[in-house]
């Protein structure tokens, strides 16, 4: 691991990782573009769920998905802060100050009254640990989905259930291959820049 969560060296460690480590630039671009691709398809999935009215017909599936969404946003935010560029610093300052109405929450999260070394160390720890919680909520979401079934555009419940294997499995597998192709196109040919220039390296 080449990243150190230190205030004075975090930004330069990212430079070192990109310039001196073999395929470091490729790994960082795969990581950051992968997060952007996940959010792109997550918003499409969320829009479909809203248009189908899934929150009304299947509230357990809906709320497990919303918890999954919040943990994913927290993980992405903490990963965005780790390079500690100008955009990272001010983004973290604004978001952590939103927690000021809650007593002692900023001090607990940041390790003090402002962003400093303990903040980066805690954000690095949370950025590493939250994906394990994400896996739990993902399995919970899939459990509710397969236990209660999913919604349809007509918003009516029928007894004509389609078996998961092979029909839905093949449809999901085809969708996964399509997403993987788009992801590899982005990472290898750079169709679109997902990074902000003030925080890019």
TrEMBL record:
GO CC annotation: mitochondrial inner membrane
Annotated compartments: Mitochondrion inner membrane
Transmembrane regions: 29-50, 62-82, 88-111, 123-144, 164-185
InterPro entries (alphabetical): Cyt_b/b6_C, Cyt_b/b6_N, Cytb/b6-like_sf, Di-haem_cyt_TM
Domain Cytochrome b/b6 N-terminal region profile span(s) in chain numbering: 1-154
Domain of life, per lineage: Eukaryota
Residue ranges annotated for the Cytochrome b/b6 C-terminal region profile domain, each copy included: 154-201
Major subcellular location class: mitochondrion
Keyword set includes Metal-binding: yes
GO biological process, one term: mitochondrial electron transport, ubiquinol to cytochrome c
GO molecular function: metal ion binding; oxidoreductase activity; quinol-cytochrome-c reductase activity
Pfam families: Cytochrome_B (PF00033)
Protein name stated in the entry: Cytochrome b
Gene designation per UniProt: cob1
């Amino acid at each position: 691991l080449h990243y150190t969560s230190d205030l004075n060296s975090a930004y330069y460690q990212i430079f070192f990782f990109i310039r001196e480590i073999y395929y470091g630039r490729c790994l960082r671009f795969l990581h950051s573009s992968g997060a952007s691709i996940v959010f792109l398809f997550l918003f499409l999935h969320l829009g479909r769920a809203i248009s189908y009215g899934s929150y009304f017909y299947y509230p357990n599936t809906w709320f497990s998905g919303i918890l999954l969404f919040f943990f994913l946003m927290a993980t992405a935010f903490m990963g965005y802060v780790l390079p500690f560029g100008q955009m990272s610093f001010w983004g973290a300052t604004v978001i952590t100050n939103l927690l000021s109405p809650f007593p002692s929450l900023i001090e607990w999260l940041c390790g003090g009254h402002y962003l400093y070394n303990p903040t980066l160390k805690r954000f690095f720890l949370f950025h590493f640990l939250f994906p394990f919680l994400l896996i739990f909520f993902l399995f919970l979401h899939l459990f509710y989905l397969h236990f209660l079934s999913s919604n349809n555009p007509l918003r009516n419940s029928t007894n004509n259930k389609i078996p998961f294997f092979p029909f839905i499995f093949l449809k999901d597998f085809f969708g996964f291959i399509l997403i993987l192709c788009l992801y590899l196109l982005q990472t290898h040919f750079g169709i679109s820049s997902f990074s902000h220039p003030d925080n890019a390296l």
